[in-house]
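Is this the right way to post structure tokens for a design question? Let me know if I should format differently. Anyway, here goes:
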């Protein structure tokens, strides 16, 4: 899995092929964050899109790290890519809604609930 921000790609016409050139043939998924639009996982012609959770953005510090952590958490728990992507988007949303890059009480409480 390769994770990047859509804005980091610039004028790449085919993100999947670009990612394969970087990561090699073993790449299974390219995951692109798209800010307030959510995120997309790409494998060849297949695209799985997850919308962002609506939040009031306070600070974007740590949002990408939180997103990546949520994705890794989901995949390590054996979630399907769509569910892991949703987990990542949720973690990122909690991060931008907090004044600090330290996980908020809201995220900690949410993590205690079954998902």
């Amino acid at each position: 899995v390769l994770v990047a921000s859509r804005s980091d790609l610039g004028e790449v016409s085919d993100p999947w092929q670009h990612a394969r050139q970087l990561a090699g043939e073993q790449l299974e998924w390219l995951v692109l964050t798209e800010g307030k639009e959510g995120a997309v996982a790409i494998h060849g012609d297949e695209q799985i899109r997850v919308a962002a959770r609506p939040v009031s953005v306070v600070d974007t510090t740590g949002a990408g790290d939180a997103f990546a952590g949520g994705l890794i958490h989901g995949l390590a728990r054996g979630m399907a890519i769509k569910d892991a992507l949703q987990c990542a988007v949720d973690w990122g949303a909690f991060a931008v809604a907090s004044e600090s890059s330290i996980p908020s009480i809201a995220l900690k409480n949410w993590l205690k609930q079954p998902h």
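Format looks fine. Someone answered above. Worth noting: The longest helix spans residues 81-96. The longest strand covers residues 39-43.
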